[in-house]
Amino acid sequence: MRSNALIIDGYVDEPACLGVAPYISPYVREVAGVLLEHGFTPGYVTIDQIRSDPTLITSHDDLVVMIAGLTVPGTYIGGKPANLTEVQQLGTLLRGSTTAIGGPIAFGYAPGGGRKAIRQAIAGFDVTLAGSPAVALDAWLSGGEAAGSTDYTLTDPWCVAGAGIIARHPAFPYVMCELATAIGCSRAAVGGCSFCTEPFYGLPRYRSTEGIAEEVAALRAAGARHFRLGRQPDLLAYQGSGGEFPTPRPGVLADLFSAIRESAPDLLTLHIDNINPGTIARHEDAAREALAVIVAGHTPGDTAAFGMETADPAVVAANNLKAMPDDVFRAIEIVNDVGGNRTGGIPELLPGINFVIGLAGETPETFDANEAFLERVLRAGLLVRRVNIRQVMPFEGTRAYEENTLGIHDARFRAFKEWTRREFDGPMLARVFPAGTILRDVIIEVAGRPSFGRQMGSYPILVGIPLPLPERTVLDAVVVDSGMRSVTALPCPVEVNTLPVAALRWIPGVGKKRGATIAARRPFRSIDEFREAAGKTPVDEAMIF
Rounded to 5 degrees, what angle do the CA atoms 189, 192, 197 make? Predict the structure, then answer.
């Protein structure tokens, strides 16, 4: 007789792994595979579901495994990660079950950026799964110590066996499956970046192409159509060797993308995450070829996340960071060269920039350098998908835990963030998503007026639609305006004769007053009739009458 087990997804976010809804982390799927191997029937519930209905965890399963923890602070739309109070409350409520907790929370916990993470025992849980949650859980269930490092020869079969758990995700089938390709940092021997937790895993261990392809096939069979090669610190270094900055191997990446495509020929999304700008700057030719392989194998609208952290050379040196500002700028140029072409109206692959505030050596001039760098990008006519600005969250065991400037430049940090949103993000969004851009398959996540939705993908743009739409509505939308962090769009095709006046006014060139006049002249029988009333607009081709 099989015992019941429950996986609670408290969500994870690490420098090299995202598991906040609609993303589902590899850890969850690996744990599901372990539970099946040990004779359990695994269930699955997210922390958001528990908040809505606490009775979901009152059935007293024989075993409960929670996955949780953030080592980078973020802002989320699809879900809210479990905080420490919630985790401890769950541990207390689950006294009737055997309980285990794993994930980045084992490194420590901080309520947000700008605060040190404190390592502590998690009250209420019988055991903390140290290291790889799945390997540690397997060892513990086998009677050993609840600890273990990632071993893909073990976790690959568990990923395949546990793939079906995705069907229990509340967002299914619109679930982004984060695929592991590597763990560990190629710069771990020299300490890595001062603030990063990835060196805790040691030097890189790369997953086989065959293992990834087998998991993708299992996920596809379970209903998955959206994938991201995200659980890795630098995809260009996949199966590479050669010191701190391994030389990219374009042929290996080509095999990887080909294998994924063969395993899921009807996939809808295949995106990436981290790319080390230092790798591009040091291996331009090989990196350019590897990026071309990614563009040939992925789906458009992709983002290569650059861990720039700062544009101040002194801070780069003080924190053993990956690349100097000129290196990052050159990497931005190369990604634009290779990935800036538009397919279906959207760029294939653009860089994203991450800044980290509060590092050792930071001064007021650091923020001046950051702003000057972003101005340089704008002047050069380059495209950047997004800029993330966060305060460092130092963990015990990193240099930043003792060496940082937290709290010293708070006012300048806030000013820099506001400057970036106003002076850089606004113009850049209008450049990346000009009026008339059609965004396919936008999924409404927040109902209201406006309703908000996103596409499936890596750092998808937030889309505001000035209409009340039910959650989980899926529609095409045409961009009519852009702000600092989002765009405004109308359902596509734009049904001019039935569109409410409050939405009609968002058509470029119409406006509130003219919208009422145009509405009074409806119905229009053709685009020519509409142009007589409203003039030519960037969204004319998206209209129907």
Answer: 110
